[in-house]
Amino acid sequence: MPSVSRETTPPQVGDRWPAPVPPRVLTIANQKGGVGKTTSAVNLAAALSQHGLRALVIDLDPQGNASTALAVPHAAGSPSMYDVVVKGKPLGDVVVAAPDLPGLCCAPATIDLAGAEIELVPVVAREMRLRKALTSYLRTAEVDYVIIDCPPSLGLLTVNALVAAQEVLIPVQCEYYALEGLSQLVHTIDLVQTELNPELEISTLLLTMYDARTKLADAVAEDVRAHFGRRVLDTIIPRSVRISEAPGFGQTILSYDPGSRGARAYVQAAAELAAAAVSPAPVQLSPGPQRDTPEPRFHRPQEVQLHG
To answer: How far is CA 234 from the centre of its chain?
Structure first.
C-alpha cells in the first residue's frame, strides 16, 4: 500500500503527476448525504486524469450521480455495478471510458443496485464481492487510481467499498450537522479494519462546501483539523454554484468551468493527493482518533454490526 504523508510539496498543477505503484484504491465515504462525496469522486478523478494518470471511478450509489456527472449511460438494465456485485460479472465487462476525458473510466451504477443488499443476504462472503472483482480486474488493467463512490449509508454496499479499498477519503461539509455522523463513520471503518480489511486506513479528509462568510465554517474546519491533523488536506473546496451546475450538463467542474474557484480547488486537492503517494517521509496514520489531540464535539456512535 502506498505510504501517505502530508509532509511533501504537491506537484505543480501543470506537471505530469507521478503514478503510484501499486495502484491506489480509495473509497470516498460518509453516510451523510450532500457533503460532496460524488462531486469529489468525479472531480478528483478528472484532475488526476488531466495530469497523465489513469483513473477509474466505481459508482456504488444506486442513484448513479457519478455516472451522470461523467456522461456515462446508466439506464436500468444496462451493464453496471449491479452485475458485478450481485451477479458476479467481471468488473472489466462494465467499465466504460468517460467521454471527452482521456484516461478516465467509469463502472456505472443503475437503479438495480438499490436491491443489492437484500439480494446478497443469502450470499456467502457478501462483504468481499467487490474486493474479489477489483483484485481480478487490477491484475491486467492499466490504472493508477481507483476511486469508489459510496451511497449515503453504512450498509452492505459501503462495507463492500471499505473492504475493497486501501484508503478512505472522507469529505466533510463545513457545517455543524456534517460532524454529527463522523464518529459513527470512523467507528464503522475501525470495525471493518479489525474484522475484514486490516490494510484499511483513513488517509485523507477533504473539507467541502466552505463558505468564508460564516464563522461556523471556520469553526468546523478548525475542529476537524485539530482532531485529524495532517490527514486533512490543506486545500478547501468552496461552496460554489458552478460546481452544483456541472453534473446537470454531464460534466465535471474541470470541463464545465475550468477557470472557476471550484475547479482550481479540486485540481489543487488532487495534486495533494498525488503527492502523498510518493512522499519520501511516510507517516503512519491511525484509522481512529489520535490520542494526543482533543476530542471532537461529535456525538458518540451507536454500535455498528457488520453482516456476518
So the answer is: 17
Query: Structural domain of residue 159, as residue ranges?
Result: 24-276
Percent of the chain with pLDDT over 70: 85
- Report the amino acid identity of residue 304: V
Distances (CA, A) of 35 to 52, 140, 191, 197: 28, 34, 23, 25
Domain total for the chain?
Answer: 1
Asked if the structure places residue 57 within a domain, the reply is yes
Residue 283 maps to a domain: no
C-alpha to C-alpha distance for 190 and 14, rounded to whole angstroms: 37
pTM of the model: 0.85
125: left (phi over 0), alpha (psi -120 to 50) or beta: left
Q: What is the mean pLDDT of the chain?
A: 86
CATH number at residue 122: 3.40.50.300
AA identity, residue 213: R
